[in-house]
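Task: encode each sequence below as structure tokens.

Item 1
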Amino acid sequence: MFDAFDDGTLRFLPSRLNHQPVIIGGLTADEMWLTIGLSAGAGLLGGIPLAFVVTPAMPLLGALVCGALGLSVGARVLRRLKRGRPETWLNRQSQLALAEYGPTSFNSARLVLRSGAWLCKRRRFA
């Protein structure tokens, strides 16, 4: 049934053992919680002005509705963005955005941020 040696060990090396499992709509657990958190936070902030007009429960209702909508819409958008790219693409893109637009303390990944032409020739030093 399995491709194994006589002693029971496998003949192949599984390649996806250390990757995060896909949970909902093509998102991993970290991506799912980030999507829910950002959309629920937006719903909470949008519900605060409505709490004075409609009912005091609007911030919680807005967070709940926007969290659910954000997960359904965000899963589709992120799945399209990640298609055909490596597993760590989203993490690297967020690190690059923080390193480029944030303070230098956010460049914890120590990404090389350089623009310009690279030289591929030797220089003579006298």
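Item 2
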Amino acid sequence: MNAPADPPPCGPVGYMRRTRDYYAALGHAPYRWAHHAEVPFHPLPRPLAESRVALVTTAARFDPARGDQGPGAPYNARAKFFEVYSGDSAAEHDLRISHIAYDRQHSPATDQNSWFPLPALRRAAAAGRIGTLAPRFHGVPTNRSQRHTVEVDAPELLRRLRQDGADAALLVPNCPVCHQTCALMARHLEAHGIATVVMGCARDIVEHCGVPRLLFSDLPLGNAAGLPHDVASQDATLELALRVLEAAPAARTTVQSPLRWPGHPDWKADYANIDRIPPAEVARLREEFLQQKEVARGLRGA
């Protein structure tokens, strides 16, 4: 199915078309985004104040042996992971997004709370807004293979969430394909009795795939959990997600956050816009893209 045309500049970014054109210019075959007509829907089995809520992320654990993973680091395939992982929700963690295509031009990537809302969830649990925070959070790999995501990663995530006794899960993607990954995960969890809400910035990808609940933040990729270094916006974003989780009447419920990006307004026009990239830079990016593909292929086969 062809991706829809870009909406007017005042609306959400058309990430499916934008990334299709960008990667086509770099020599990648056209990508077919996941699409489903039917969407599973599982209401919360008990009030949110009595529910156990889990966090699911596409961010990667920092490993100093894997190259530059800091703010603004170039796309780093060495930092990728290829299996579901879990971490202690009571501990502190250093999670990075250098391995995926977040908005490097406009997002500072200096505050992991913008993409990993574990502290906000702890505050919600302490305030009694949710019953308990699941003992573990879970990281899911970003695979272009929808089949692998659905047949391997989603069942493994479900198994771990059942071990944790989770009633619900918040899924926070970062890059375009991350949004598809989290959408597919959410569909699988809902079909097996766990309520979900996706907190995302790529509305077209998530809605095209078809999910029960989406909190859409019209912000640069990498900020689905709120504005960087702005705890109030992060708590408000989480609260909106929790309201969607408990109040959505049916599948395909999307609620848009009122947050606005405080930085340069050109962020919507800039991201992966091949028309704004000089030919010499396109050639350099094409070579870099091929090199990073080889790195990822080597890691996956190792």
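Check on item 2: Residues 114 and 230 are 9 Å apart (CA to CA). The helical segments are 15-25, 118-126, 146-163, 176-191, 203-209, 231-247, 267-270, 279-301.
End of task.
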